[in-house]
Amino acid sequence: MSDEVRGEWPLYEVFVRGKRGLNHVHVGSLHAPDDAMAVRHARDVYTRRNEGVSIWVVRSDAITASSPDEKDPLFAPSGDKVYRHPTFYEIPDNVPHM
Amino acid sequence: MPEIHTHEADEHDSAYAGLLVNDAHWAFGTDFEDPLAGVDTTVPEGIDAHELATYCLRLGDDALILSQRLSEWCSRAPDLEEDIALANVALDLLGQARLLLARAAAADPSLVPALPEGSPVPPEDALAFFRDDREFRNACLVELPNGDFAETVGRILVFATYRLSLFQRLTSHPDAVLRAVAAKGVKELTYHRDFAGRWFLTLARGSDESRRRLEAGLARTWAYRHELGEDDEAELVLEQVLATSGIAAPDVRPISTGGRHTEHLSRLLAEMQVVARQHPMGVW
């Protein structure tokens, strides 16, 4: 961490795993002075109604995101590849959860 | 407990899908009821009921008054996140106050102020809203004005450290109700102490201004901490926090108010009690 004094706290993205959830889910963002306080803030802001059992926080500026401009080159090519979906199989009756 | 079933259709639309499923996960019901409903409140043999009741009243008053004070931060904290954090601490303390006042009333009903015949006000509310400042047994530390954020942080640190140490001991109290209240409170107070301790360190190591405010605020509350009880363990924890933060313990003599309150309590109570007192037959 640098010693530079800033007027604004950095932004953090918050991920919470619920009691019955298998993975952490993005629930929102908040400001905090440092990583440890970000977890406390996340606990106070996002789990005060008994939602969570685990919290991840990450500085928003540490996230690299795809750009809306890249939407077509990135995602359009997969739009017409129906054969990538496993829909051409006959599923036997005794296979559950399909 | 109602059965929990998960959403499927809108799973990708809401960030909370998978976290929030139905009302079964809510921490609280939708109604206020006796916090000790269904609990056996018989005072165990060998314990003086009046002493137990006044002790619970003292602990409950500490929580109630600090809760009211901290609630004054609502919409005024330095940041939205701190606003919610302080409100959470205040709500935890209000929960402790409800249980302790209800315990006091059940152990010795003669402590509960008399209300008009047929008043629906429960005993915990009668104790909270219909006693005058002289009948409150809280320590002066909790009734002092908030000061700035740094002063509030210092006060929560001192209060939570003393109370956590006490509640840990109370988890082996002969009264099962007080034991259970203490066990619940230990988890809450551990968080309050952690929250305030982290902020204490942050402000101490922050700018010259944050450090100056922290020291000035601590000097105003430090002298009142002995009213929370003699407690070497709590003192040791505070010493460690001060040492880590590089803050010297304020050089102030303990203030002994001789059981009297400061003028600040009556003003706090006036605001807290005015509506309830105007409607002793009111249902909330």
Considering the chains and any ligands shown, give keywords for the structure:
heterodimer, A: 98 residues, alpha+beta, Ubiquitin-like (UB roll), 2 helices, flat, B: 284 residues, mainly alpha, 8 helices, disordered N terminus
Q: Could you walk me through the main structural features you see in this protein, from its secondary elements to its overall organization?
A:
The complex is a heterodimer of chains A (98) and B (284). Chain A is α+β, with helices and mostly antiparallel strands and 98 residues long. Helices cover 17% and strands 23% of the residues of chain A. Chain A is built from 2 helices and 3 strands; from the N terminus they run ββαβα. Chain A has a 3-stranded antiparallel β-sheet, with helices on one face. Chain A starts with 10 loop residues before the first strand and ends in a 23-residue tail after the last helix. Chain B has 284 residues and is an all-alpha fold. Chain B has a single domain, classed as Ferritin (Up-down Bundle). Chain B has 8 helices and no strands. In chain B, helix 4 packs antiparallel against helix 7. Chain B is globular, with a radius of gyration of 21 Å. At the A-B interface, strand 2 and helix 1 of A face helix 2 and helix 5 of B. Chain A: InterPro entries: PaaB, PaaB_sf. Chain A: This is 1,2-phenylacetyl-CoA epoxidase subunit B. Chain A: Pfam families: PaaB.
